Model the fold of this input.
Amino acid sequence: MHWIPCEKTKDTVDKNRVFPSPVYKTSERKGTLSTTGHSTNFVSTLLLPMAQHHDAKFWTKRGVACLTQLDD
Done:
């Protein structure tokens, strides 16, 4: 992945048309709770663009998440 930072005020992405997908290290999607309150398996949240006919509930019900590695 190539990340390009931008100022929040200059971001042109429509926040109503993105799905905040969690990014996990492994497909188990669980880990021990760290002192920050997040799972040790959680990496970040990735905003994924959605089609006009979908909403965030559509993807949440399907358990959509991104992974940093595949299972063997």
Q: What stands out?
A: The first strand starts at residue 18 and ends at 24. Strands lie at 18-24, 42-49, 66-67. The CA atoms of residues 56 and 70 lie 24 Å apart. The longest helix spans residues 56-61.
